[in-house]
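Researcher: Sequence recovery benchmark, item below. Answer with residues only.
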């Protein structure tokens, strides 16, 4: 009831401001009413949203956005390359910067839970009751294009929640894997650095988090979407989503998967996942993987070292197509790959 009442008030104020433009013809009056109300929502969201800086690979940006979800430094963001390095840092709204630790990831929802050693009294309290419905106004707050590096304000875009739908992972021609419910929004959020930003209502309540970039090569379009708050709440609580449970559960008595890749082992378990050899006739050979490629992601999970590679490999299912991304010289290459059964 509380959400519906606030939503009605928010809609009424925005519509009155817009009506002032149409019927009264006073642009300054409409702008003052609309901007004043939206400014309140932005002022609420800004201190709860952070800038994240880390590693970059080739043309993949080394920065992103995150939302604070506890008073003791827990942050949720999109799972990305910028979390792979040893100097990943978070900058708060006041300009203070802290080193960050990655606590947990979800490859299907493309989420990562981070922790900084700092008190964060301004944070989004996550719940499972939707704060917005189809047709509601929403505001996206993010560090798109790295507009802010310290205490500068983040960028803001206004739009409408268009639809709640589901997306199935591993769609043909889709650049990033995502599986689960999502909100489609009409404000442009598919820009470098925006992933992990806050999507809030016109009264500052969290609707969801800006999702990772999803780009269709077939239509040359990008998807503007948000991961719903209810999924963020489950992720923070350590509860796997239904799609995660389905995709990580072994099918029957399936044997372990094998890609036919041997990694360099000179640096031990924490050495980068460089490909030493690719076995002839293997899944990797068929996919186009070469010696000296650096494995960046596998099955949507970031691979920062050989241990990560072995852990993700153990979750793959023989015969079920997945995606591997490698760094080859100065570019990132993406390949579909179908694991074999380990003999």
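Model:
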């Amino acid at each position: 009831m509380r959400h519906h009442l606030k939503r009605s008030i928010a809609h009424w104020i925005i519509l009155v401001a817009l009506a002032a433009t149409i019927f009264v013809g006073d642009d300054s009056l409409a702008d003052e009413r609309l901007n004043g109300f939206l400014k309140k929502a932005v002022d609420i969201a800004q201190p709860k949203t952070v800038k994240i800086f880390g590693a970059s690979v080739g043309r993949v940006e080394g920065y992103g956005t995150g939302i604070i979800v506890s008073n003791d430094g827990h942050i949720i963001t999109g799972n990305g390359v910028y979390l792979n390095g040893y100097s990943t840092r978070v900058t708060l709204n006041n300009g203070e910067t802290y080193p960050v630790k990655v606590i947990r990831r979800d490859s299907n929802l493309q989420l990562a839970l981070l922790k900084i050693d700092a008190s964060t009294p301004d944070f989004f309290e996550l719940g499972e009751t939707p704060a917005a419905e189809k047709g509601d106004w929403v505001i996206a707050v993010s560090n798109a294009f790295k507009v802010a590096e310290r205490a500068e304000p983040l960028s803001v875009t206004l739009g409408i929640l268009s639809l709640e739908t589901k997306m199935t992972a591993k769609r043909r021609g889709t650049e990033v894997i995502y599986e689960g419910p999502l909100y489609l929004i009409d404000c442009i959020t598919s820009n470098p650095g925006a992933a992990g930003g806050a999507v809030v209502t016109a009264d500052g309540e969290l609707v969801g988090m800006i999702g990772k970039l999803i780009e269709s090569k077939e239509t040359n379009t990008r998807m503007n979407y948000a991961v719903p708050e209810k999924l963020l709440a489950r992720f923070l609580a350590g509860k796997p989503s239904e799609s995660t449970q389905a995709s990580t559960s072994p099918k029957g008595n399936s044997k372990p998967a094998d890609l036919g890749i041997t990694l360099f082992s000179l640096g031990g378990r924490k050495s980068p996942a460089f490909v030493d050899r690719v076995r002839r006739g293997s899944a990797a050979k068929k996919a186009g993987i070469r010696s000296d490629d650096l494995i960046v992601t596998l099955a949507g999970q970031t691979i920062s070292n050989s241990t990560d590679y072995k852990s993700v490999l153990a979750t793959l299912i023989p015969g079920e197509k997945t995606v591997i991304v490698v760094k080859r010289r100065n570019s990132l290459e993406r390949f579909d790959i179908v694991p074999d059964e380990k003999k």
